[in-house]
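Risk mitigation, structural track. In case the binding assays with 3-(2-carboxyethyl)benzoic acid fail to produce interpretable data, a predicted complex structure has been prepared as a fallback.
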Amino acid sequence: MALESALRLDYLSLAELAERPEAWWQGVLGIAAFGAPVPTAPVSHIPMVAVQTAVLGANARRYEVWHGGERTHGGEHGRIQYRRAANVIYGRLSILESEVAAAPRATSALQSATELAYREIFAALDTLRMPHLVRVWNYLPDINAESHGAERYWQFNSARQDAFIACGRAVTGAVPAACGVGSPPGTPLVIYFLASSQAPTAIENPRQVSAYHYPPEYSPRSPTFSRACTVDVANARTLFISGTASILGHATVHSGDAAAQTRETLCNIEALLGEANRAVGTRPPFARGSLWYKAYVRHASDLAAIDMELRAGLGSGAQVLYLRTDLCRQDLLVEIEATGCYSISRTP
Ligand code: 3EB
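Fallback model:
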């Protein structure tokens, strides 16, 4: 089996992973397992992420696999496990709030854990000379619970922003694409990411206020993420569309209607695709039918309605993984991320 020569994303089942030869495993950058055991790999130092959120629907492809397209090299830096190829690195960490004490002035252990996590990420990226965070996936236990007079998502936002500032990173403009969704209470804060030596191009959505400029009613400190970004790494042109929801301007629209929220979210994704294609002039352009999607669904009972809208909007060829999670605003029923990864051929 010849190795693919470019970075790629796949959703695979445990059975498919078991059939992959060792040469393929040498190129894996990292694997996130959703509501499923992490696989055993024939190669050491492959970052494995256990995300304890349930997959919805009859989908055995619960493993989100990034492959570097060439031999990759792994290691550890502090709490981060990572693996790198050419100019891209995949990393993961998880922290139990019970492991960290709340700092005297911090409001909670979640805040301490979040700030520690991001400081460790930036320290590792600086040492490894991959300073640009491209895409971050954040799984926050019990995201909507309140403590210390603030929703836990708000606590996360202030600690994340503090760490960005402390580590000399921008908190508006050139910020990574990201999502921040819930995971079961009592599980660790889980973060995994892609970073690069190349600076990505951040993309915003003309239909929405940039999240880093959200007014304080949603979170006293604005969230630090861009709506999307694109970067060429490891012989691939990538597009990362952050968790996207039924938000116009800064307001949630279609409260209580999962189908309408899905349609609005698809309009937002379409707007971002237009902006991204304009920004980088990709040929062929990024097209919604050939992206990898994760749809975060608050109520399992809304799955059929959301799936019907997504099938109609994306066509049957799109890869969609449904996860049951809480979301960062009480009135959001669905949030959808999209990832594009097109090989840049080295021969004409
Ligand atoms: C929104 O558009 C929905 O805090 O990292 C989407 C993507 C959302 C990322 C984050 C939050 C985050 O505001 C929420």
